[in-house]
Amino acid sequence: MIQSQHTPLADQPALIEHSFPVAKLSAESYKERKAGSGQRLTGIGKWWGRKPLVLVRASILGALLPATDDPQKDNEVFERLMGMDDFGLYERRTRKALSKAQFDAMTPEEQLKGAILAEAYEGPSDEESWKMINDHLGTNAHTLQEVVEQLGVMRFGEKPKVGDVFSGGGSIPFEAARLGCDTYASDLNPVAALLTWSNQALLCATPEDKERIDAAQKWVYEEVDRQITEWGIEHDEQGRRADAYLWCNEVLDPETGYMVPLAATWVISVKDRVVAELVPDDANKRYDIRVVTGASDEQMKKAKQGTVVDQQLVPPPTKDNPQPHKTQMSKLRDRHNNGQGLRAWHSDDLVPSPDDFYQERLYCVRWIDSDGNRNYEAVTPADEAREAKALALLHERWRNWQEDGFIPSRAIEEGPRAGRIFAGRNWRYWSNLFTPRQLLTNGLFAANISRSNAPKELLVLLGKLNDNNSKMCRWNEGGSKPNNVFNSQSINPIYNYAVRGSKQLHNQKIDTISHDCFPISVGLSDARLVATNRDLWITDPPYADAIDYEEISEYFLSWYEKRIPNLFPDWYTDTRRALAVKGKGTAFNESMIEVYSNLTHHMPNNGMQIVMFTHQDAEVWADLAMTMWASGLRVSAAWTVATETTDGINGGDNYVQGTVLLVLRKRGEVETLFDDEILTLMEQEASKQLKDMQLLEGAGLRWSDADLQLATYAAALRVITSHDIDGIDPRQELLKVRAKGEKSPVHRLIEQASQVASRELMPRGLDPAIWRDLGAHERFYLKGLDTENRGEHRSGVYQELSKGFAATSWRDLLGDERANHVRLQTASEMGSRSVTTGPLAGTLLRHVLMAIQITAREGEPEKGIAWLQGEVPSFDMQQTRTIKLLEHLGKQNLPHWTQDAAAARLLRGALMNIGV
Predict the structure, then answer these.
(1) I need a surface site. Which of 82, 573, 713, 800 has the fewest CB within 10 A?
(2) How far apart are CA 354 and CA 794, in angstroms?
(3) Is residue 646's pLDDT more than 50?
(4) What is the mean pLDDT of the segment spanning 693-705?
(5) Does residue 497 contact residue 475 with C-beta atoms inside 8 Å?
């Protein structure tokens, strides 16, 4: 264990422990995510779940900056350093001719839209800003790197040492190095370590290295182009060059005896109106595939219907089969080979065996002429001859290239993702996932990269090329181009795919940057065994089995494994699946405790940890709380930042949008309390947390209900992890096997504490006296309407509200459950259902909604009043509450509430007029 030095900021809380501008950070993170290929690290190589660089930068600065007795100034300094205030946004503007007056007239959204990414901001450029920053912090800095170093010395007695033991795609160590920190990074996975190393080698290159790497990359592309041109496998007799080859699988339809080409759609290009048409060749029992350019509307519509619909084979009509039948593909596949199913492919299988169920067929080539014109054409015998030549050339090089590691020889290991490959095609080696042309082209790149003057730096280029050139690349008819393999987490075999010509692979070139960065120490290591001391550990652990990193990364490792020992002699070349921290349950929890206990041991007493994770389940929070508790850590703050766009990996509104930043300190000596004392403290802490956040709104911060709800989780975790609880052993509770639905004591405590926020999350415009007396589902319903009025329709938001209000039957109140269209039922949609049963049964709100429905249906408020008088017990004592509820519901400004809102206003007026 390392000891703390006594320094000016050694005992002072950090800014991130008191405030964090999550709304602005969410907007900046979203902007960075939506930049696509404009994101700095994505151009280096594929990784899953990289955190935005702006979030990492904010985390480091937030951990170093002090929280003083002037929180407004604290936030002002932080936002000035980040370039997120008005001054910074003006400096970040892309239209430099824009005057300050023109800029000030823009909306905040327009200002952000017209700004460069926050991660590219180099800090304030004027003396006035740095005077304001230095006066507040007691520093003498004029760059971000200088202020980071000086704050590190003031807090830790040294330039801040930052570490990440789950480096993944390298966002955390890369940004820490750019800010001037002494940075250590490690990962169990060699693909992750290579990306982390390459980020700095390519994006923080010296001018001399940049020149060398750029020249080497240019030479590689020229050599590949020269060789392929010399072979003559991409040029036709007219001198045109192919840049895309469209392939499909074919299967034998046992009922007709025809070989049927497979595709979900036969539209080739929407923009150019190109389609493929299947024409029966009765003599040969197959289909000719014609390519039609300038297709009519009718042809475009017909081409949308593929020969595979919902995993069913739908053959096109023939003379003998005018009425196409449908057959499940799985049944055909399983019956193949006398019921043996698909044959397992061998390492040297480059094309299907004649007896294989799935055959492969080239059906269209896109040609580019000397003027750049594109033409889609059906396949000719000459095209097939060029494919045969590519296969022959590959055969000549096959053994040598496999021995040298220029093409994969690795078998595919068993696993969840691999299971889909085995079931779909029974490919057993990574080389099986590529056509001969792709293996030849990608192998040629690999061979030339190894001969270049930058074999180490350009190794990741090979990964980029293979992500964009395999049988898993779907043809995008809307964009008229191939997708990449990992536009999702899956490695699923597909029926029709695209092969890029070598020229089209030129857009995969890596852009190097000459930039001063402090070096990163990168290693391959089990996080449980890391022995490096750090002041600040920032980690993004693989939580709750979200992504099978170690399995899907083997796609890339199959192309790297024989090159790594030569280039990185100290590295191993497998993903160490058995050691991976992943999954759920006791083994995962045990591993997490070991990891974070180790990191706690290797930080000073005043050191900090920031754990990033993406989850919205209170049970996961409870497990995480116990993990940190058992690891000797206490939670000092927690924040959630929206880091994912709605079109995330799986898409849909249930996709988790936010990243939680958990800020942790060493526990030290703690007091033991009973759980009722803990609950009281949690409620007090949660209430204080909410009040503090509301005070900070005066400093320009804005909080959503989700932020406030999460704040109560954070408050609960602060109390739980800062004490021992009588009768609760966190390690034992974590490793306990529970029955389905059984909750841990900590889980129950967190849920109870979260209800503090729910009591204070009152809808705008509602009388507090009404809110105080409402039940759980009444509160959920009225708060849900408030949420709808703000344009929020993600089910995850409603789910969080339900947890906070303990509204267990909330789904029964929904009127629409479609992704991103979630909303509650209106009064009329409820009808007479659930008056006596259901989550609102017997409540005043349910009777009011029923009266509104009657009034809207009958057009007579008297009938609604009659319902209330007859059904609501002691209605004369409920009159004021009824009128106030009607007043609130009558203000609903939603299209689907127009009729019911009008009925609520009419009913309220009638009640008041008769003096009920």
Answers:
(1) 573
(2) 50
(3) no
(4) 60
(5) yes
pLDDT tens track for 391-414: 999 999 999 999 999 999 999 998
Query: Token pair of 626, please?
Result: 């116990």
What does the pLDDT look like over 277-312, one tens digit per residue? 999 999 999 999 999 999 999 999 999 999 999 889
Strands 536-539 and 814-816: unpaired
DSSP 483: P
Tens digits of per-residue pLDDT, 733-754?
888 887 877 888 888 887 777 6
DSSP β-bridge partners for residue 475: 482
**Considering only CA atoms, which of 64, 71, 35 is closest in space to residue 52?**
35
Question: Quick check: 448 pLDDT over 70?
Answer: yes
Is beta strand 312-313 parallel, antiparallel or unpaired with respect to 327-328?
A: antiparallel
* String of DSSP letters for 381-397: HHHHHHHHHHHHHHHHH
Domain boundaries, the chain: 15-204+516-731, 238-435+470-502, 763-914
CA 358 to chain centre: 34
Structure tokens given for 236: 């036709």
Highest mean pLDDT among 25-29, 531-535, 726-730, 736-740: 531-535
- Of the candidates 845, 589, 865, 911, which has an alpha carbon nearest to the alpha carbon of residue 734? 589
Phi first, then psi: give them for residue 815, nearest 5 degrees. -100, -20
What is the spatial distance between Cα 70 and Cα 78, in angstroms, rounded to a whole number?
13
Nearest to 625 by CA among 716, 505, 548, 531: 716
Residue 2, both tokens: 């390392």
Report the pLDDT value the prediction gives residue 648, as an integer from 0 to 100.
34
CA angle at 445 for the pair 441 and 447, rounded to the nearest 5°: 115
Distances from the Cα of 745 to the Cα of 622, 710, 808, angstroms = 9, 19, 19
Phi-psi region for residue 540, left (φ > 0), alpha (ψ -120 to 50) or beta?
beta
The residues with which 361 forms a beta bridge, in sequence order, are 248
Amino acid residing at 895: P
Q: Which of 176, 866, 911 is nearest to 536 (CA)?
A: 176
What confidence score (pLDDT) does residue 758 get? 66
Crossing angle of helices 705-721 and 675-696, rounded to 10°: 140
Strand boundaries in 49-196, DSSP class E:
161-164, 182-187
**8 Å CB contact between 469 and 530:** no
How many Å apart are CA 713 and CA 689, to the nearest integer? 10
Per-residue exposure over 492-528, b if at least 16 CB sit within 10 Å of its own CB, e if not? ebbbbbbbbbbbbbeebbbebeeeebbebebbbbbbb
d(CA 511, CA 43): 7
pLDDT score of 129 more than 50: yes
Looking at the predicted structure, is the pLDDT value of residue 496 above 50? yes
Give the homologous superfamily in CATH for domain 15-204+516-731: Vaccinia Virus protein VP39 (3.40.50.150)
Q: What is the spatial distance between Cα 780 and Cα 806, in angstroms, rounded to a whole number?
A: 9
Neighbours of 600 (CB within 10 A): 20
- 154, 141 Cβ separation under 8 angstroms: no
Any idea which residue has 């390298």 for tokens?
A: 170
Residues 6+ positions from 387 with CB-CB distance below 8 Å: 362, 436, 437
